[in-house]
Specification:
It contains two helices and no strands. By secondary structure, it is mostly helical. The N and C termini lie far apart (about 65 Å).
Length: about 100
């Protein structure tokens, strides 16, 4: 009878350990699902913001008659030093905006 009791206690102990592991996996899964939802929402927001910025760029380009992007969506080479400096400042501005978005 004592060996049956030991087997029973061992079995209960193993079940308790298994239950704790399952609960920790469930909690981790819930946390990951929450984070995924938040990241998906942020991704959608950034995509919408990107579209708005593209529209603003297009609007500004149509007003100035100059295009920053060619048809393949790559940068045209600036022709003079002043344009290069202006482009560098724009890139720095975009990088700082991206850094702010990432850090928030």
């Amino acid at each position: 009878m004592a060996s049956n009791t030991n087997k029973y206690e061992f079995f209960i102990e193993e079940l308790n350990i298994l239950e704790k592991k399952v609960l920790s996996y469930v909690a981790l899964n819930e946390e990951l699902a929450f984070e995924k939802k938040a990241l998906t929402k942020k991704n959608k927001q950034l995509a919408e913001e990107n579209e708005v910025l593209k529209m603003k760029i297009s609007e500004l380009e149509s007003k100035t008659g100059k295009s920053t992007f060619d048809s393949s969506n790559s940068y045209e080479k600036p022709t003079n030093l002043e344009e290069r400096e202006k482009l560098k400042k724009q890139i720095d501005l975009y990088i700082s905006k991206i850094d702010n978005l990432i850090s928030s």
